[in-house]
C-alpha cells in the first residue's frame, strides 16, 4: 500500500455540508386547509436541518464530525451552536453571519401516524458557496467521508463533491429534498453513494417505487448515470443497497411504536457515514444505519431523537444476522 493510500485508510473523520434549521414542530390530527385554523395537540421547538441532523446523528454514534455551514447571529443560531457543542461537533467552519437569520422549518406531524410534512428555509445557509468549500479544504483533506444534501445551494454541493474526490474522500449525496431539475452526469459521477428515499428516487429516475423490484430498477438507473452505489431507503420496507456486484435488501428494525418519522432519514445517513468511515462492510453499514433510524422514529423531534451508539448496538444484538 502506498503512503497516500495508507493515510487515506487511517482517516476516520466525517465532513457534513448542510444547513441548520430551527424545527417548529406541530402535532395535529391533520393539516389545515387554506384559510382554516386548527387546534394542535403539541408544539416543540428543536434543532433541525438535514445537514445539522446528520452531523448530530453521526456524532451521537461515535463519529468525529466536522460541520460546514452558515447560521445567523440570532437566537436560533445560538440553539445551533449549543446543539453542536453538546455532542462534540467541530464547528470551525460553521460561520456565524452578522445581520442574517438562521434557517427554520415548519413541521407538521400527524397525531395518528407520526408521518410528517415539512417547509424549510435555509436562512444564512442559502449563501453557502464554493468559497466555503475552499475555506474548509483542511477539514476535507483529513476526512474519510463527505456527505451533502440539497437544502443548501447546488453550487456548494457540487464544489464539495469535487473537493472530496480530489482528496480521495468517500462521497455520499443525500438528494433531499428532491431536486426540481436534473442534477447532471457530473454530480452522479462524483457520488460513491447516493441515498434517496422512495419519492426522491422517483424524482431522480422517473420510476414509481411501490416494491423492492421497483427500487432495484430505479437504483440501476442511478448506476447508469455514474453513481457507484445506490442506497434507497424505503420507510417501513427497510432499505435497498444496489451496486454493480450486489443487490441487498435489509428490513427495517422494529424498536417500538412509531412516534415521529421526521428524523429517520437523517439518522440513517449520519450513522451510515460513521459506518463507512469505520470501514464496516456494506451489510454491516446498512444494518447499523437502519438500527439507528429505527430507534429515532420512536421519539419526537429530529436532532433530539438521535440515539447513542450503545442503543443502536443493543438493538443489533437483539436482531442478529441469520446463520
Automatic annotation (TrEMBL):
Sequence positions that bind substrate: 21-23, 49-53, 151, 266
An example molecular function term from Gene Ontology annotations: ribokinase activity
Activity control, per UniProt: Activated by a monovalent cation that binds near, but not in, the active site. The most likely occupant of the site in vivo is potassium. Ion binding induces a conformational change that may alter substrate affinity.
Binding of ATP, residues: 197, 233-238, 265-266
UniProt xrefs under CDD domains: ribokinase (cd01174)
Matches recorded under SUPFAM superfamilies: Ribokinase-like
Domain Carbohydrate kinase PfkB: 13-309
Family listed: Belongs to the carbohydrate kinase PfkB family. Ribokinase subfamily.
Subunit structure and binding partners: Homodimer.
Annotated protein name in UniProt: Ribokinase
Record organism: Variovorax rhizosphaerae
Amino acid at each position: 500500500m502506498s503512503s497516500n493510500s495508507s493515510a487515506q485508510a487511517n482517516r476516520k473523520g466525517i465532513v457534513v455540508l448542510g444547513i441548520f434549521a430551527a424545527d417548529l414542530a406541530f402535532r395535529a390530527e391533520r393539516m389545515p386547509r387554506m384559510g382554516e385554523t386548527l387546534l394542535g395537540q403539541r408544539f416543540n421547538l428543536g434543532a433541525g436541518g438535514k445537514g445539522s441532523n446528520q452531523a448530530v446523528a453521526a456524532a451521537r454514534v461515535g463519529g468525529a464530525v466536522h460541520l460546514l455551514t452558515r447560521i445567523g447571529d440570532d437566537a436560533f443560531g445560538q440553539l445551533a451552536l449549543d446543539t453542536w457543542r453538546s455532542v462534540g461537533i467541530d464547528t470551525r467552519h460553521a460561520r456565524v453571519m452578522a445581520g442574517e437569520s438562521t434557517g427554520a422549518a415548519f413541521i407538521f406531524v400527524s397525531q395518528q401516524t407520526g408521518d410528517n410534512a415539512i417547509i424549510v428555509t435555509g436562512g444564512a445557509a442559502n449563501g453557502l458557496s464554493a468559497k466555503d468549500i475552499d475555506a474548509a479544504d483542511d477539514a476535507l483533506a483529513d476526512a474519510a467521508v463527505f456527505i451533502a444534501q440539497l437544502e443548501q445551494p447546488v453550487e456548494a454541493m457540487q464544489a464539495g463533491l469535487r473537493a472530496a474526490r480530489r482528496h480521495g474522500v468517500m462521497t455520499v449525496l443525500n438528494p433531499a429534498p428532491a431536486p426540481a431539475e436534473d442534477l447532471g452526469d457530473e454530480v452522479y459521477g462524483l457520488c460513491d453513494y447516493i441515498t434517496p428515499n422512495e419519492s426522491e428516487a422517483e424524482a431522480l429516475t422517473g420510476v414509481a417505487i411501490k416494491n423492492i423490484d421497483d427500487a432495484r430498477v430505479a437504483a440501476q438507473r442511478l448506476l447508469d448515470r455514474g453513481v457507484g452505489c445506490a442506497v434507497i431507503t424505503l420507510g417501513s420496507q427497510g432499505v435497498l443497497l444496489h451496486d454493480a456486484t450486489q443487490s441487498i435488501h435489509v428490513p427495517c428494525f422494529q424498536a417500538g411504536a412509531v412516534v415521529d418519522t421526521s428524523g429517520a432519514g437523517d439518522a440513517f445517513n449520519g450513522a451510515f457515514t460513521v459506518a463507512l468511515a469505520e470501514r464496516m462492510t456494506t451489510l454491516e453499514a446498512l444494518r447499523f444505519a437502519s438500527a439507528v433510524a429505527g430507534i429515532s422514529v420512536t421519539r419526537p423531534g429530529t436532532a433530539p431523537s438521535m440515539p447513542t451508539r450503545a442503543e443502536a448496538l443493543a438493538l443489533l444484538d437483539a436482531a442478529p444476522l441469520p446463520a
